[in-house]
Amino acid sequence: MREPKLNTSPSPGDEVKTTTCYMCACRCGIKVWLADGKIRYIQGNPAHPVNQGVLCAKGSAGIMQHYSPARLEKPLLRVGERGSGDFKEIEWEQAMQIATSWLAPIRERNPDELAFFTGRDQSQALTGWWAQQFGTINYAAHGGFCSVNMAAGGLYTLGGSFWEFGEPDWEHTQYLMLWGVAEDHDSNPIKLGLGKLKARGAKIVAVNPVRSGYGAIADEWIGIRPGTDGLFAFALIHELLRGDRIDLDFLVRYANAHWLVLRNPGGADDGLFARDGEGRVLCLDRNTDTAVDADTIDISPAVVGEYTLPDGRRVVPVFQLLAERYLDPQYSPDAVGERCGIPGDTIRRIARELAQAAFDSNLVLPIAWTDSWGREHQEMVGRPVAMHAMRGISAHSNGFHTCRALHVLQMLLGAIDAPGSFRYQPPYPKPIPLPNRPGKARKPDGTLDAGPLGYVHGPEDLLVDADGNPRRIDHAFSWAYPLAAHGMMHTVLRNAWAGDPTRIDTLLMFMANMSWNSAMNTRETLHWLTDKDADGEYRIPRIIYSDAYASEMVAYADLVLPDTTYLERFDAISLLDRPISDADGVADAIRHPVLDPATQAPGRDVRGFQSVLLDLGARLGLPGMVHADGSPRYRDYADYIVRHERAPGVGLLAGWRGADGDEHGKGAPNPGQLDAYIANNGFWREEIPEHARYFKMANRGYLEWAQRFGFVASTAPIVLQLYSEPLQKFRLAARGHGPVQPPERHRARVERYFDPLPLWYEPFEHDQTSRDTYPLNAVTQRPMFMYHAWGSQNAWLRQIATRNFLYLHPDTGVKHGIADDDWIEVGSHHGTIRVQAKYAANTQPDTVWSWNAIGKRKRAWGLAKDAPESNQGFMLNHLISDVTPKGDYANADPVTGQAAWFDLRVSIRPAQDIALDGSEPQLPELACAEADERPLRYGAGFRNTEHRSQAAPEAPRMKAFRKKEGP
Ligand code: SF4
Question: Hey, which of 188, 796, 797 would you mutate to test ligand 1's pocket, going by the most ligand atoms within 8 Å of its Cβ?
Answer without folding.
Answer: 188
